[in-house]
Amino acid sequence: MKYESFTEGDTYRLGKRMGENAQKGQVYCLSGDLGVGKTVFTKGFATGLGITEPISSPTFTIVQEYEQGELPLYHFDVYRIEDIEEMEEIGYEDYFYGNGVCLIEWAVRIKELLPKDYIQITIEKDLDKGFDYRIILVEENQL
């Protein structure tokens, strides 16, 4: 599916809708350049799950855990992963195959660890259509 976002609010609302419909065990891979709105989307997604605590990027911690919603949210940022073994050290399988929902930024860096089924969300800018304009592609992938 292809969505157009004209404002941060649009991106947030799409994330919220997707969070409201998320199911236990789903893995979402979120990609896009820096500053494209991944964190805005994630905040909306968390709201859709019923999470009210502040959401921040786990850039330096690899994973942030939010347990208070309808389902736990495990928000990964694997940009800084140098070696796949770092994911094994944090016990990624417990997150990916557990009772929550995973949202992974920069998942291409750990592609070999992703489950067979995941949802790819790609956010892209199109400055010809305006500074805040985004195209958001949502695709179900099967390896």
What topology does this entry show?
Layout lengths: L1 E4 L2 H14 L5 E5 L6 H11 L14 E4 L6 E5 L7 H5 L2 H5 L4 E5 L11 E9 L8 E9 L1
Helix pairs in contact: 1-2
Biggest beta sheet attributes: 7 strands, mixed
- What count of structural domains? 1
Uncertain residue segments: none
Q: Number of helical segments? A: 4
CATH topology type: Rossmann fold
User: In what range is the share of β-strand residues?
Assistant: 25-35%
Instruction: Bin the helical content.
Output: 10-25%
How are the strands of the largest sheet arranged? 1-7-6-2-5-4-3
Specify the overall morphology: globular
Subcellular location: Cytoplasm
Protein name: tRNA threonylcarbamoyladenosine biosynthesis protein TsaE
Family: Belongs to the TsaE family.
Pfam family, one: TsaE
Care to describe what's here?
- The radius of gyration is 14 Å and the shape is globular.
- Strand 6 (117-125) and strand 7 form a beta hairpin.
- It is 24% helix and 29% strand.
- A seven-stranded mixed beta sheet has the order 1-7-6-2-5-4-3.
- With 143 residues, it is α/β, with parallel strands linked by helices.
- The protein has a single domain (2-142), classed as Rossmann fold (3-Layer(aba) Sandwich).
- Helix 1 crosses helix 2.
- The model has no long low-confidence stretch (mean pLDDT 93).
- It has helices at residues 8-21, 38-48, 85-89, 92-96; strands at residues 2-5, 27-31, 63-66, 73-77, 101-105, 117-125, 134-142.
- It has four helices and seven strands, in the order βαβαββααβββ.
- It comes from Lachnoclostridium phytofermentans.
- It holds the Pfam family TsaE.
- This is tRNA threonylcarbamoyladenosine biosynthesis protein TsaE.
